[in-house]
Predict the structure of Protein TusB.
Amino acid sequence: MLHTLMKSPFEANISLLISMLKTSDDFLALQDGVLIALKDNIFLKKIIMSSVKLYLIKEDVYARGLHQNISSKFVLISYIHFVSLTLKHKKQMTW
């Protein structure tokens, strides 16, 4: 399953999201969701420990001026790669 976080992690039920992640899942944050990848974020350790592949939309990170404060555990991708993830996962959950 592809889990996409589009809003700030402070506006979503991140505990529920993380509890639903399986090792075969992918996690993508975009728009204000990219805040979850900030270093020293209260949610960062738990999302990293979930063992899923973690992605961020590069354009959203740079638009918010966060590129120097993002955890290295996240892979920055383009919207084209986002489309590839949606094709890979027939099931998707938006948070």
In short: The beta strands are 2-5, 26-29, 53-57, 75-77, 92-94.
